[in-house]
Every structure is written in C-alpha cells, then in structure tokens.
Amino acid sequence: VEDRAAVTVRRASIAAAVAARALAPDFGVDPDRAYTYGLLHTVAYGDLLTVAAEMKIAPGPFRAALIDAHRPLVGRIRAEGWSLPADLEAVLGDDGSDDRVAAVLVRTARAALPDCALGSLPKGISPPRNARAIAAEVNALLEFLGLPPAHVPSR
After folding, report:
1. I need a labelling partner for 27 at 20 to 30 A (CA). Which of 17, 45, 98, 110 fits?
2. Is the pLDDT assigned to residue 43 strictly greater than 80?
3. Spatial distance between the Cα atoms of 55 and 129, rounded to a whole number of angstroms
C-alpha cells in the first residue's frame, strides 16, 4: 500500500506535467521541457513530506504552512545541489513571485487542476481555458497508473 503523501506528490507531479506541456506553446517553451518542469516541481514537497513524516508532524494546517514556508528554500538547495540550469531552479525554488517563464508556466499549470496541486495556489491565477481537456488527459494517465482521478473543472 502506497502512502498518502507519495500518491499526492505523484498526482501533483503528473497533473502539472501534462498541463505544462499543453500550455507550453502559450509560453514559448518546448513542450518536453515544460513537461519536465511539471514533473520536477514537486521535488521539494517530497523532501519536506518525508521530513515531516520522520518528525511525526501530523497532517493539518501547521504541517501545510511549514511545507509552504520552506519549500522554496529546499527547492533552491536541491536545484543548486544538482547543478540544475536556471529554468529548473526557477521551478523548484519558486515562491509564487518569480517572473521567469518556467515558474509562471508551472504556476499556471498547477491552476489547471487545483484538486491535484500541492500547497497554496497564488492569488489571481485561474484555470486555463483548456483545463477540461487537460483534466481528461491527466485522468487517463492517473487511471493507467492506478492513482485517484482529478476533479474535472466545471467550466
């Protein structure tokens, strides 16, 4: 049985990857690179969820705030440790205010399926116009992988 945190991270990663690939042309980004952005944006969440579990910090508002507060720093440290290029560093270390294309693309991709997004979504970002098509593709992939489906946006 896979733990809830691992399933949540996998769903968030897959949803953001599919959405980022679909939105890539609007941002002038190669679709495969955008897919990579989406997959990797959850790295720091995974690290922090592992630490929270080891410290026996129960799920809830405190743990969520702790993860939200420290995720950008952990992401930057991870990106630096892996010697990632600047665009991937922007994705891993985004605090919601980074104006680099990669970071904005991933924030927009996360808004496509808020049901799958980890952490808080920045204010002012609404689901893209093709969110229902993105959701259909994400759900096909989630079903194939045996993961819970994403809620399909109503508009």
Report:
1. 45
2. yes
3. 41
